[in-house]
Structures are given as C-alpha cells and as structure tokens.
Amino acid sequence: MSALMQTYARLPVTFSHGEGVYVYDTEGRRYLDGISGIAVNGLGHAHPAVTAAIREQADKLVHTSNLYRIEAQEQLGTVLTQLAGMDNCFFGNSGAEANEAAIKLARLYGHNRGIKKPAIVVLEGAFHGRTLATLSATGNRKIQAGFEPLVTGFVRAPCNDIAALQQIAANNPDVVAFLAEPIQGEGGVKLLDPEYLQAARLICDEQGWLLMLDEVQTGNGRTGTYFAYQGLDLVPDVVTTAKGLGNGVPIGTCLARGAAAQVLGAGQHGSTFGGNPLVCSVGLAVVNAIVQDQLCANAIAMGQLITETLLEKLGSAKQFKEIRGQGLMLGIELHKNCGELVKHGLDAGLLINVTDGKTVRLLPPLVINEQEARELANGVADLILNFD
Ligand SMILES: *Cc1c(COP(=O)(O)O)cnc(C)c1O
Questions:
Q1: Is the CB of 230 under 6 A from ligand 1?
Q2: Which listed residue (90, 91, 190, 214) is catalytic?
Q3: What is the tens place of the pLDDT at every residue in 135-175?
Q4: Does the annotation mark 142 as catalytic?
Q5: Is residue 375 scored above 80 in pLDDT?
Q6: I need a surface site. Which of 52, 77, 91, 367 has the fewest CB within 10 A?
Q7: CB 362 within 8 A of CB 332
Q8: Is there an atom of ligand 1 within 6 Å of 242 CB?
C-alpha cells in the first residue's frame, strides 16, 4: 500500500533531471515537455538563472517570516506591480491562496460598503483551486462533490453572455466582484471573448464591482503578453497569478489597484511562508528572464508555429475538431474522448495533458525554440493521427 493518499492518478514514470524543454526519467529516457509541470516551468528545467537564484539565496537566508521586512519581496512586488499596472500585492504560496486573498479582499470591500452578504460572480467551467472557497468558486461539480457544504457567496454565470451578466447586475445588489480566467485552462482551454471581458469591465465600473482576473495559469508570459488582459485593452482591479511565477518554487500573488489596493489592512490576511526570501529571489529571476529574454514574443511566435504545423497535419483528419488558444497555451479539441493520448504520448517521449475529456492541452516552456516546437507539434499530430 502506498504511503500517499490516492489523490492523483499518477503515470508510471519518475523523472530524475531535466534541461531546457527536456526531462529524463530514471531509466535515462528523454521526453519533450509539452506541459511544463502544468504551466509552471516557463523557463524550462534547470534554467541557469533559476538555479543561481536558489543557490545564492539558500546560502544567505531562506525564511524570516513576515514579522520583518523582506527585501526580495519588496523588489518582486515593485517589479510585478509595474508590469501589471497595479498598486500593490500580497504574496502566498499557490494559485488557490492567491485567489483566497482575492475572495477575502472582495468580501471586505463589500462589507466596507455596507453589504452584509457580499457575492462574487463566477463562471461556468471555471477553475480557481481546491481550497473550500476556491472549489466553491470553481464551476465543475466533480471538484465540489462530497465537499458540501460549499462556501456561499458565489453567483454562477454562463461564459461570454453579456446579457446574463447585465441581468445579474440588475437583480443582485449583493454582488461586489466578478472573477474569471481570461482563458479557462482546466476547463478545456476556452477563451473568453474580448468583447465579453470589456463589457464586464464596463458593468463593474457602473455597479462598483471589482473586476478580478485569475491569471494563475495565463500569467507570466504564457499567452504572449505578461498578463493575458494586456492583450485585451482593459485593466482589472485585482489580478492573481502563481504557476509560472516561481518556475517550480511555491509562490502566488494577488495584485490590486485603486480602491481594491486599500482594502486589506494589518492583521486581516497573512501567510507564514508567503513571499519568503527564497521564493521571491527566484520569482525575481524568473520575471527578469521572461522580460529580458523576450519570452512573451517567443510565446507568440512558437505558438503560431505549433498551431500552423498542427493544422497542416490535422486539418482534414476526421477525429480533429479545432485548435484554440493563445501564445503557448493551446488546446486541440477532438471529436471524442482522448485521455489515453497522455499514455501514448509518454510512450512516444512526449509529455502532454488532456483536459475536459476531449482536449489535448499543450503548455510547453516559454523558452522552446523552433526546432523543439516543430518536434512537439509533429509528435502530437502523429499521436492524434494514430488515434482512431
Ligand atoms: C492551477 C490553477 C489554480 C490553482 O492553483 P494551485 O497553485 O494549484 O493552488 C487556480 N486558478 C487557475 C486558473 C489555475 O489554473
């Protein structure tokens, strides 16, 4: 019997090391990483800047707690708020914690305005995490089942339906915020229409709601801009991110702007590990590499190359439905369930993922080059062509 709770259906492979977009298993087999530890290793594996940051900081100081000032946390906060167009931020250790901070912030914002039972609009198909509040915000019954009673204070809306959002605004005086992923990742790489998000921004302004974007997966260069909303001609009031921020060290953050930045005060939120010297030094190295190495531009170019290569090979295949996505966040939807492709990929030396049953999800490292991008696209196309 395993000493581990059976919360994951793990594949029968163990990796021992990696370099760039490749990882190696304990038998010495090489795999092209098309999933980056679920959008985490944007800089790939064993990136020298990340390794150096971990080494140098580990040599000096790993943790002191938030009872004291933390230089690296202040520096990373400055860099991120500037990149995001936000005023301040709070550091936690994961995506779910970043969203918890946003949810608490929204509730307190509501209470400060005299709303006793503040509610947050969330979308069908959304994924916001596995803690009680974030799984309640998540729009997937499988993730919620068995964990009732759920946290109340969420109002569910259909995606891309502006009229439905207007309806909620007209009928629900307790709403204080709208929370959404610009592209639903776990939900199957589904993009929100830019017009929908722009309409949501207007409705938030009219109603005094906070526009809160969950960029845990889409952030840190993944979609071709540092944050996905930067390609959408709007600025949210709150944005959360995590996955790609630490390239593997646990870090997440909730950034806020304007009135939202003034809500949480001393003693109202906290995290023992949150934003410690180690993770923030690594976060700084990661953000600097994304910016200096122009990885957003690379994400766009390589995303296009992968998409074109896939379309060329799959365009007329009967099992292929469509490719969705942006930058290096891609979903290839088939006409039938294709969970088995993950195992076929492993056999072929490719790490891929399937979400929402029928969608192959690709989240390769942002450092992927042309040759590697072609290798990934051709490999994935062959997997799909051989699957009927
Ligand atoms: C992964 C993810 C989360 C949860 O992040 P954890 O670090 O696993 O807690 C939240 N929101 C989105 C959009 C995600 O993709």
A1: no
A2: 214
A3: 999 999 999 999 999 999 999 999 999 999 999 999 999 99
A4: no
A5: yes
A6: 52
A7: yes
A8: yes
| Phi, psi (degrees; rounded to nearest 5) at 230 | -70, -10
Nearest CA to ligand 1 atom 6: 95
Q: What value does the mean pLDDT take over residues 213-230?
A: 98
Q: How much is the average pLDDT of 78-95?
A: 98
Q: Collect all residues with Cβ–Cβ distance below 8 Å to 132 and sequence separation of at least 6.
A: 147, 150, 151
Instruction: Report the atom number in ligand 1 closest to the C-alpha of 96.
Output: 9
Catalytic entry in 127, 154, 178, 227: 127
Specify which residues 353 forms β-bridges with.
361
pLDDT at 20: 98
Atom number in ligand 1 closest to CA 97: 9
**Which tens digit of pLDDT belongs to each residue from 306-334?**
999 999 999 889 999 999 999 999 999 99
Asked if 318 is an active-site residue, the reply is: no
Structural domains for the chain: 15-33+294-385 (3.90.1150.10), 50-292 (3.40.640.10)
